[in-house]
């Protein structure tokens, strides 16, 4: 059966989809994209290389189509393709797809931007998967200018129509999770981060529940990156405010224990979400984000405040006078099991250690 299915798709690709992709009727071109996006992962992986290349060659030009419905359908198909193992490991396809999607993130039609933001989120998720390889180097997949463009368009989308925001913060979180420290070294990179954190915080605090859930999850993803500029300044690095208008560093000596400017706003937004949000799925992901950093310096001056917030959340979960909606009981119980309080910080767990896990400082334990 598998062999027959593969042969069927080989015939469809070569005999029908190839011709349909060049049809003058836009509805036919839309169906071409829909057919391509319906190819199952297992089927695509069994196709001979020639037919895989044919499918990519037919699809990649379509995001530039003059009809918005075709552009939207093409973005959706690219978003499906990038999750195929053979394609997410193909640096050429990833680069070509990123370029095609970036142009559509600025499209005047909301539907196209929506499909493009979903595809961009999938692209960044795919990069997270391939980053598990020992020899992974982000520059081999996306150049620094492309990285900046992805982060910039994701940030813009996070402040766009509410339908785009959940995918935008998802892309932002996945991309920053795998970004090495040297990408954050120049002034432009720090400016992009500043704007990205503004968008992230806004979506943690406001928007649909799906958007807020994704924003908290994105924050958790970002904080998994020990190289991300968060908490206390990395030694020898300045913030955006430490550069003059020409991008040159000021000669002044940075104060000891200075924080990145967005540290307080991100943690305050997460604390508010975990303590005040009525939706427990949002609170669960906010709690997860607060528990993610594995170095004390990433918390900056906010470790004690976060500890108190988590402890307050645990007490709230056990307060018999506070009742949740029927649909929230399951998630309330999940949050209850996710947060386990410990006694206040003890001298046997010195906070001055450079690398201190949440478990060793008796702060939060996630099951």
UniProtKB/TrEMBL annotation:
Signal peptide per UniProt: none
Coiled coil region boundaries: none
Classification via Gene3D superfamilies: Leucine-rich Repeat Variant
InterPro entries: ARM-like, ARM-type_fold, HEAT6
Protein name: Armadillo-type protein
Annotated source species: Absidia repens
Source lineage: Eukaryota, Fungi, Fungi incertae sedis, Mucoromycota, Mucoromycotina
């Amino acid at each position: 059966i598998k062999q027959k299915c593969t042969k069927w798709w080989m015939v469809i690709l070569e005999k029908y989809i190839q011709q349909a992709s060049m049809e003058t009727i836009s509805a036919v071109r839309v169906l071409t994209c829909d057919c391509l996006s319906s190819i199952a992962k297992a089927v695509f992986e069994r196709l001979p290389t020639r037919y895989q290349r044919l499918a990519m060659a037919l699809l990649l030009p379509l995001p530039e189509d003059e009809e918005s419905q075709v552009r939207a359908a093409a973005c959706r198909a690219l978003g499906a393709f990038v999750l195929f193992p053979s394609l997410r490991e193909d640096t050429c396809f990833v680069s070509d797809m990123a370029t095609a999607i970036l142009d559509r993130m600025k499209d005047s039609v909301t539907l196209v931007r929506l499909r493009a933001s979903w595809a961009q989120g999938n692209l960044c998720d795919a990069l997270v998967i391939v980053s598990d390889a020992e020899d992974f180097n982000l520059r081999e997949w996306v150049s620094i200018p492309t990285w900046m463009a992805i982060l910039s368009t994701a940030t813009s989308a996070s402040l766009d129509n509410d339908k785009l925001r959940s995918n935008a913060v998802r892309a932002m979180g996945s991309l920053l999770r795998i970004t090495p420290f040297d990408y954050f070294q120049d002034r432009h990179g720090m400016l992009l981060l500043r704007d990205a954190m503004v968008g992230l915080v806004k979506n943690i605090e406001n928007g649909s529940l799906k958007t807020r859930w994704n924003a908290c999850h994105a924050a958790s993803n970002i904080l998994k990156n020990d190289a991300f500029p968060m908490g206390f300044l990395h030694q020898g690095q300045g913030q955006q405010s430490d550069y003059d208008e020409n991008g040159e560093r000021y000669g002044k000596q940075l104060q000891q224990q200075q924080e990145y400017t967005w540290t307080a706003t991100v943690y305050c937004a997460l604390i508010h979400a975990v303590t005040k949000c009525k939706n427990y799925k949002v609170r669960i992901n906010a709690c997860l984000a607060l528990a993610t950093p594995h170095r004390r310096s990433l918390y900056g001056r906010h470790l004690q405040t976060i500890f108190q917030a988590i402890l307050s959340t645990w007490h709230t979960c056990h307060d018999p006078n506070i009742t949740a909606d029927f649909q929230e009981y399951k998630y309330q119980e999940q949050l209850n099991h996710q947060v386990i309080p410990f006694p206040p910080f003890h001298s046997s767990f010195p906070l001055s250690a450079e690398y201190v896990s949440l478990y060793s400082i008796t702060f939060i334990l996630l099951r």
